[in-house]
């Protein structure tokens, strides 16, 4: 393991050449968009660690980057499952340089109506899953002597609630992810491991298809302010690419909001 006192030659280009990166929940949606951006910016290989099957969108990205995008089945709520997947990544690719803790669940309803099971499901994936994924990656980085980068997917809901579709358990879980970012960055700096997060706003995915279909959507946009549309998943990628790259070698413990200046409250 390199010590923090060793001189560092700053990297001036934001690119991921030679890097092996694992992304939880990347078979579709935001995770797949991150994978696409990483491969476009030179990553050698991306491994999606996901509990479900891949689909046509995954196949489309894979076709554009033959032999560079892989899917491994893993359950982020079980640390041994994530550990086994990471071990397999290193066995197949020879290394691991970056981990994106992206797998997440959402459910929006009044706080008084949430069942214990629904809360457990949200926190199991969003909080426990993020923590387990980060810890398994950190262990791998330390064992390899790699200056690794961990990036969490948080949310603008971690800053303030969405009045239209409230979810106290979801917002709390993502606020926990942001706090985890700062604490783990502090703990793991001694190992040259950087820990950051990205907070997306309104993003066009299978989970948000209904948002622009609301009859008062145009009025909502005027109320929210900012860019009058949802973000495309690929528009989030630049933040992740930067944080995973060596150009961000002195960037740790930060959150990057990607929300088009749309106020979420």
From TrEMBL:
Coiled coil: none annotated. Keywords: NADP, Oxidoreductase. The keyword NADP applies. One of its GO terms (molecular function) is oxidoreductase activity, acting on NAD(P)H, oxygen as acceptor. Belongs to the short-chain dehydrogenases/reductases (SDR) family. This is NAD(P)-binding protein. It comes from Neocucurbitaria cava. The lineage of its organism: Eukaryota, Fungi, Dikarya, Ascomycota, Pezizomycotina.
